[in-house]
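Re: beginner question about structure tokens

> Can someone show what the tokenized structure looks like for a real chain? I only ever see the sequence side.

Sure, here's an example I had lying around. Input first:
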Amino acid sequence: MRGVEEKPRDKVVGCFLEYQGRFLILHRNPGGRHGGKWGLPAGRVEQGETERDAVLREVREETGISIPSRKLEFLQKIVFDFPEKIIDFFVYRVNLESKIEIIPEPRENQAYAWVTGKECHKRDDLIDGVRATLEKTGYAVRDAAP
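And the corresponding structure tokens:
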């Protein structure tokens, strides 16, 4: 059995794009990575890239939205020790001023939804780690704003 120090380690970023108490989740295409599962706009940090730059890039690639860096709020780093690897997950949030038109990346995502934290937490089709991210960031108990 491999020890923790022998596991590969990846840096991954994710973002809560919020509008009026709801946030965006994306439905991954069936044949791809995390196929048929729902999750935040997220992805790996590329070599030479900062976590902040990576989250801005991933949001743009997966939704078609360009977020100004100044609107990005860092929430926390969560370490996931999965059987196959360790993930350092850097979680961000953007509070949107208006509901935006989402253009999902068709090679990766087939649909999207705006959900409350409670609605998302109840789902049984989330990417591994999403439920724990909701719990650790406090989103799991959130309802939409009145």
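Each token stands for a local structural state, so reading them left to right follows the chain. The domain at 4-141 is CATH 3.90.79.10 (Nucleoside Triphosphate Pyrophosphohydrolase).
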